[in-house]
Amino acid sequence: METESPSPTAAPPLNGRVVRLYFKCRAELPIGSYLRVTGCTLWAPGSSSQDPTDAHQIAKEEASQGFPVRDPDEEAAVDSNALEGVGGFDEEATGMPTTSSMYTSSVELVTTPEEYPIWRTRRPVVVVLHKQAKQIQHHYYRYLVVTPGATTETGALTMAELAAAEEDDDGDGIMDAGGAIVSTSEENMGSTRVMMWEDPFQSLQKSKGSGVSLDTTKSFITNDKLGVTKNTIINLPYRTVDIDVSTGTPILEEDARDVRVDTWNNRDDISFRPYLIRDAMNVENRKKTLHRRAASGQYSVTDVNMDDGTPSAGMDGSGSGPTSGGTTPVPPAPTRIFFVCFHLPVVVVQNQDTKEWRASWSESLMAKTEGSKVLSTYQGHWVGTVTTHPPITSEEDKAKVRAILAQMDCTPIFLDPAVRQAHYYGFCKQVLWPAMHNIDLLDLSASGLVGLSSHEASDWDQSRLDEWWTAYQDVNSNFANVVTSLIKPSDIVWIHDYHLSLLPMMMQAIELSKFNRTVARKVFFLHIPFPTSQIFRELECGEAILEGMLHADVVGFHAFDHARHFLNAAKRILGLNYESLVGGLIGVNFHGKTVLVTMSNVSIEPKQVDAALMLPSVQAGYSELQQKHKGRILICGVDIGQQLSGISLKLLAFERLLQDYPNWQSRVVMVQRVLLPNSRKADEAFTVRELHAVVKRIQDKFGQSVIDYQECSGSSYPMGQRLALWKASDVFISTPVREGLNHWPMEYIYTNKEPDVPGVVIASEFSAVCSILNGALRVNPYDIQMTITTIDKALSMELQERAGRRYRDIDFVSKSQSDKWVYNVLRDLKDAVSRSSTSSEGASSGATPIGGTTPMRRIGKSELVDTTAGFLARESIIAFPHLKIQNLKASYDVTTRRVIVLDFNGTIVLKEPPGKYLKREILGTSGNKPPPQVVDALACLCQDPRNTVFVVSGDSSENVINALGHIPRLGLAVSNGAKFSPPAQFGEPRHWKTFDLGVDWDAVKRVALPVLSKYTARSNGSFVKLTSFSIGWSYYSCDPEWGSLQASHLVLELESELRAFDVRFVTLKGIVEVVPRKLNKGLIVKKLLRDTGVQHPEGIDFILCFGDDISDEKMFTSVFSYIAEMGDEKNAKPSPPVLNEDGSVDTPMELSNECVVRNPLYSYTVAVGRKASHASTYVNDAQEVANALVLLAKGEVPSGGVAVWGAANSPDLFT
């Protein structure tokens, strides 16, 4: 390997400096095979969902969100300009890459008959320095062999074989040696499969089922099956060259001079030494870890899978096994789980005589249960508010309550009474509760569910909404401060219910400021229904609540209906897509991570019910009810006294039953208990008045004995009285019109288990329990006749059918206690964290329409000595740093020939904040003009004769000219670079030129427009957008689901109709575009750089390129491609012909090899948003782009940054 010598005096700074590395390798290859070396960043295959240096894979991933890839070969050809990087992959749950994503870009090596078997790179691999002075930057690379035109007869697997291997459950599908599951591409070459990798340390031999020895002369693909797994391929050895950052040269051994010659598959090559050192450290550390854990009792050394060094562990990573050395193991510290709920599941009372406080666990689902298996594995802790009897009035009493609750692993939170009132009784009960239960705010504001006419009182008070929302935020903030003060890394925080929906988001904000990363794994579980998106959209704070919930790793519901509404709201309100994942999971892509949405049900605690059934009070209550209603069949119900409980509908059906079936009048009794929690006072008052009227009417008609009606204060009926009622009743009926999970029907079934006579459950189809109990009779409470018939069926049901219905449900009811539920949710959490830990390495806010940036996951020291793929993934993250604009300014100041290329929308024209509608999210911009400060900065930069400044846009020329056409010496390119105007002096008219891309665009329009008009007519809100070199069908203002559906069919039809034309389809979110196949923004960037190099033979020494979306990736690749071709311009692929305004062919500038390669040369390719990108660095948002341009032009940035919509700048902006 060799590099160009630097100039005698290297000028600071060092960040952003380009190093051009050449490689040489001695390799004797079969005839027809060629050697290649991987590009600028050795991305670990299989370690991430996307590769930040692979524009092809990024484009395919984006397009596949809405449309299928029709032709793999055609799709691969799109990346013909790719130069650097190794492909990242869309992993399944096993963490293994898919076939289509095993993709790597590479640089060719060439040889001559005189030089053979020495191969050398004709063009260099381009590396951008990101380390500080006096540091060493490591460049990792691999050699690979391709055989153009090779088929599966050479040993490559067919697509069917690859698919079968991917579907292998254990992720260890067998593949051919070298695994032709990886393809490679480079400029001018297209895509071809990798036929061979180096394997000097016999990694393939170590894989499962391999009995074939691979020596240094046999690393080619053969027809022999060698048991190679995908995991083996991604962990093959790598080579290293160290670069001295201060000089920008590789550090070579003395006898190598300016060149190091590697030898194919030679384990003794010095470039393999860092790999061997790291691998040895890995083995040693793994042994120490295993023995340490074995000594602590987590598992024995014999439990370890020696193939990969991982323990055979349970769901939580722990295990059991014999200890070594006969010593008594020290139990490891268990993982802590914080159960966070608004109401602590405790009962706290004060003895009025002694004034001492006492506490005990309540019946709540979240309460600690005796003998809990979860708490034998995890350390539980509860956080929430506490309601005491009597209320606490002094700090002394608060201290006493804290002390007794600390003994129960509880942390109480004491809220200001006014804040609690506004939060719980205001926002939660008057806003969220009805909204979550699908109550339209129009109905709510008119009657509040309590009044038949407008003059009656209502709970709803629009004027207090701001006060309630502020209180809701304050309470969630209070909880966030308390919980984050308790947590440590790797803790689990389980947040319960709608009272605390902002808590995951607020916790993350505090974690980032405190730990500079998220440290706790979070679950948010909603125990009530989630409304339709149409209802939820009415909430002013709906977006904030959705975002708050989505900051958890897992969002859980009790019913699929509730989850479906949540997913639909996330799509229609936030524009987030969801996908089906391996294992039957559903994932929402939010802020660069996959949030799992899960459905999980829980039953009662059988041991608790069994113990209560033994109480004398239960038997006494049962006997009392039997005696009181002797000779009658009991129909029971216990409900909250509010309209949503549907009690009045139940009583109306019972009244009609007695009327239509007179034989039941003397044989049945309705035992109805109504609970009044006093949380919705007006609603409860109205409901009680209504019930009193119905009960009185029934008793007047049919006698006092047909109904036993009582009201009870509180939100729960005492367990002893409840069980007595269940035992005495033959039928349980519940008819809510909206309801979350109600355990009382399950408790009723369990109470009447064998050998007791089975009861019958009648459940509303609007309740969550209806989807759980298979033996229940389902009713629509609004269908009175249906309910009457169902009650009659239940009363008349034969014993055999009753027993059969009980049998369907008793197994779930008796074996699905909270322990099992918790384990199920924790398993989903493990899947979520595992998926996010792999995908977050390349993830970004740019993957979603939500603004902001989620910091990438930090990889700990333990992962430094893990797998090769994990190590390379970590190094790739380090190689993609945040742009420090002060360093950019320093490089700008020491250079003399600069080229600055800027994208338009989303880069210098700031996009609007995300809204509820797709059209605002996709194409909405701030008036299609940059901020005034940016316009001034561009004008100032253009005035410097040492600068060439170009703005490249996908927009029409009218919009770009209107925004920037008045700036002298500013070059403009529109329609993704197809049409461009070179810089014009002040007062000179602009002259436009176009690339001749070999497409008869008028003919394309004649074919495409009739098809587009058909889809436009049937898709309200869509329209056709014509530019000089593209035809777009925009559906961003359509209904998102209908628009996406129509777009997918449109692409299929256009593909068929336009097959004869050399065009391709750009299928980004919200728009389908037909463009010439050869068109991309890289064309204009490459031409601009080449022309500038010809016009200024002294050479370019500063290149700056900003871009924010997929189309800008080609600009980044073209920058690196130009740097690689510098000094070898004669052999470069020429740009397409250019046409003048009059249609004549423009005379191209003649390229020569006399262009000077400046040293130092600075290159800044900058992605807007941290995401998978071909760029070498990133900024968080377009506001930082504005700050950078102002700094370059003016020398300083206004205090607080360039003011755009009053938004605050990123905290790391000026660091």
Automatic annotation (TrEMBL):
GO terms, molecular function: trehalose-phosphatase activity
Family, per the entry?
In the N-terminal section; belongs to the glycosyltransferase 20 family.
Q: Which residues cross the membrane?
A: none
Instruction: Report the InterPro entries cross-referenced here.
Output: Glyco_trans_20, HAD-like_sf, HAD_sf, Trehalose_PPase
According to the UniProt entry, which residue ranges have a biased composition of type Basic and acidic residues? 53-63
**Which residues lie within the region annotated Disordered?**
46-73, 302-329, 836-858
| Protein name, UniProt field | Trehalose-phosphate synthase
Record's GO cellular component terms: cytosol
Low complexity biased stretches: 836-848
Q: Which GO terms describe its biological process?
A: trehalose biosynthetic process
Q: Name one Pfam family in it.
A: Trehalose_PPase
Q: Which SUPFAM superfamilies match?
A: HAD-like, UDP-Glycosyltransferase/glycogen phosphorylase
The beginning of the lineage is:
Eukaryota, Sar, Stramenopiles, Ochrophyta, Bacillariophyta
- Organism listed in the record: Seminavis robusta
